[in-house]
Amino acid sequence: MVDTDGVRISQLAEAAETTPRTVRHYHRLGLMDEPPRLPNGYREYRLEDLIRLMRIRWLADAGVPLGSVDTVLSVSAGCEDKSDAVEDLTALIDGIEAEQAKLAARHARLVVMLERAASGTELSALPTDLAEALDSAIDNSADQALADSLRRERDMLELLAISGRAPDELLSSYVSMLADDARRSSYLSAISEWTGLEGRDPASVEAEIDHVAQSLISLYPDGFAGLPEDSPDNRPAMTLEDIIEDPAQREVVARVQRRWTAGPHEGR
After folding, report:
1. Using CA atoms in the order 167, 172, 175, 177, what is the torsion angle rounded to 10 degrees?
2. For residue 150, how many other CB atoms are within 10 A of its CB?
3. Are 134 and 128 in contact (CB under 8 A)?
4. Which of 47, 87, 177, 239 yields a CA-CA distance of 20 to 30 A from 53?
5. What is the pLDDT of residues 40-72, one digit of tens each?
6. Cβ contacts of residue 216 below 8 Å, gap of 6+?
């Protein structure tokens, strides 16, 4: 119990399970009024001071910044319009929910990593079903050149996934495409033709470049609205030139990307 006739700062702090230094800090911030000094030089705190201190500690423990504490307490005392307090508390809740979403996503990624590590499977930033589908396509490739191209395709998709530039629609569409026998066959044929472009002059294989690009576009005629463009204000850390060294192969990917970004109703 706190003596309502008055206690010193050390006793007040002890009752609130804090320190005199913290109480003085609240004085400096204007969160608590300083009682006048008695003739003996000491300050005496009363029950209302303890209640104020406990309320400040309660709000701080809940995550309310000290800069917002006075606003919230003023509302509870009926001394201020509630709009500022509601705005501050709403912002705090929004921040917590955003952090919870980040933690949930991080937890989900770590669970997948753990499962793949425990099974001896190579870790990947791609969704498990897509990584497994691509691994299967690579393992069952008809020749080494096609397998190497599929590995490069997987690496490019992973790069997009890690950078946050791969729409969920794009990744999920890859899974459904690889699960469909006819579309998978068309995809593997296009990748095989794309592999054959390596080392050839783009001007001399214009028709082949266009054919491969159209084959890939036909697999996803509606494109992907979330696919970002390489505009000056949205330029990735790595460009197509960094990822695909061969000019002819790079031109195929550039045409597909332009069409997907433009949408289904715009021409090439």
Report:
1. -80
2. 22
3. no
4. 87
5. 888 899 999 999 999 999 999 999 999 989 888
6. 187, 190, 194, 252, 256
